[in-house]
Amino acid sequence: MIDLLLLGNGGMQPLPNRWLSSLLVRVDGSLVLFDCGEGTQIPMKQFKWGFRRLAAICLTHHHADHVAGLPGILHSVANAGRTEPLRIFGPPDTGRIVAGLRVIAPDLPYAVEVVELGEDEQFDLPSGLRGRVRFGEHTLPSLAYRVDLPRARRFDARRATELGIPQDLWGPLQHDGQVEWAGRLATGEDVLGPERRGVSFALVTDTRPVPSLVPLIDGVDLLVCEATYSNDDKLEKAHRWGHMSYRESAELARDGHVRQLWLTHFGSGNPDPEADLPNATNVFPDTIAGYSGLTTSLRFGD
Amino acid sequence: MIDLLLLGNGGMQPLPNRWLSSLLVRVDGSLVLFDCGEGTQIPMKQFKWGFRRLAAICLTHHHADHVAGLPGILHSVANAGRTEPLRIFGPPDTGRIVAGLRVIAPDLPYAVEVVELGEDEQFDLPSGLRGRVRFGEHTLPSLAYRVDLPRARRFDARRATELGIPQDLWGPLQHDGQVEWAGRLATGEDVLGPERRGVSFALVTDTRPVPSLVPLIDGVDLLVCEATYSNDDKLEKAHRWGHMSYRESAELARDGHVRQLWLTHFGSGNPDPEADLPNATNVFPDTIAGYSGLTTSLRFGD
């Protein structure tokens, strides 16, 4: 299961009563934060998912509204008592950005490890999450993230008994993929059921809806996607600044066959993100206008 | 006249419903900001004193809760259309700190000039304000600021007439300090009234109440002073971390013969800053527990 919490839904600048867009993810005791603009630690305190277990921060890009809150987050994680390393993923140059911002967070009780990601790179996140990124099209290099939590194949105890595998080897077999006993060999393929669908989400923000993102997000349970402009009358701006309209975001969700869409990163000129929601739901019905505190859990089915 | 606005009253970390301690000052069309922790631009937007005229930022020290909001402020000033230079004052090493944080605010339509201040240094602020600093005692080098707005001496028109100074030279005389006409000389001393009291304030935060601060704040109209701990039962912490209790702050105000005291920089363990206010008012009656939006104007008397 993956729990997701939208901490804020704003783009460009933090406003009174609107935190900047940021997504907090919890899985099996670990937290992963996607983007951290100025003020992000405040709703993170408010919703009480904690700081100590924050094991990774994934940055989409280096604009201030997505990264300026990093020093505050690092301090709050320190104050919460973390000593294990914290890993920061991001596009190229993330090391320099983190080093710059750490002038005001130089001494931490845990190691900060930076991993710069390239096109289509796959990488491990905490607690078995698997990440993959593609570049979008923005005014700075900007990464779209897909995250999968694979589901283990079922162990077929009946089949293992039929094959005569001693029961004390079932654990090693699942762990190591094969075991030997009495001159015989069994592999996982002998005793594991069919592949099972895992759960997945994607975060796409600060990018035009370029076609290369469609396969990245294909079939995710949840797409969290920017929708800076509610109406297509701002399309010229969307093109110029590398953003999307509600309609474009919904079309991306539709083309990617996702299950649900959360809109976020609303521009400061959009005081009521729900007002124009039909511009999205007309294209992709299962769309929610994101708000600070919006949460869901992605569960394995049966 | 100097207008002052307390943007926030919190110390250490930004909290839901409590902005970090920061003071905005307006005089004759210019703005000066004292400290800018994470989120400071949000109340600054809320109270609508604007961003474009922000001519100077004075940093007391380099802890994140006093400086992490700098990139956001710089962006908001840019978005508001400023093109004139903005000057940042602070203790030694401010240049390195500003350079670090500017990794996410590299391109601005105005110049950012850093001025590092030393013990007892006096310096010019916009619109005729005069600043002076002394170091406090904290876990990092920390500056206490005093700011004076001198009042011009009155021009004595009757005396100027008696001296036969042509009226079209009165302006140049006030501007240049002396004029010559028909082989005669007049100086400002000939036509200016007695010295007149100006207005002044001081900001003292993140320091122990060391005696060297008393002459710095002497007689100011308003002292904005940290009071991290409401009760003296936290005095051991106050000593260890370089802060003050309500009582200590009030004693500093009393010893400095200031006219009014605003307490600020309340610790996160102090949910209701007014509750323990008697700990201060018992020592210095004219004390206010600062809150976001607290404002006053320091006016020249008659």
Automatic annotation (TrEMBL), chains A, B:
EC number: 3.1.26.11
Entry keyword Plastid: no
Keyword tRNA-binding assigned: no
Reactions listed under catalytic activity: Endonucleolytic cleavage of RNA, removing extra 3' nucleotides from tRNA precursor, generating 3' termini of tRNAs. A 3'-hydroxy group is left at the tRNA terminus and a 5'-phosphoryl group is left at the trailer molecule
Chain residues that bind Zn(2+) 2: D65, H66, D206, H265
MF annotations from Gene Ontology: 3'-tRNA processing endoribonuclease activity; zinc ion binding
Function: Zinc phosphodiesterase, which displays some tRNA 3'-processing endonuclease activity. Probably involved in tRNA maturation, by removing a 3'-trailer from precursor tRNA.
Subunit structure: Homodimer.
Family membership noted in the UniProt record: Belongs to the RNase Z family.
UniProt-recorded name of the protein: Ribonuclease Z
Gene: rnz
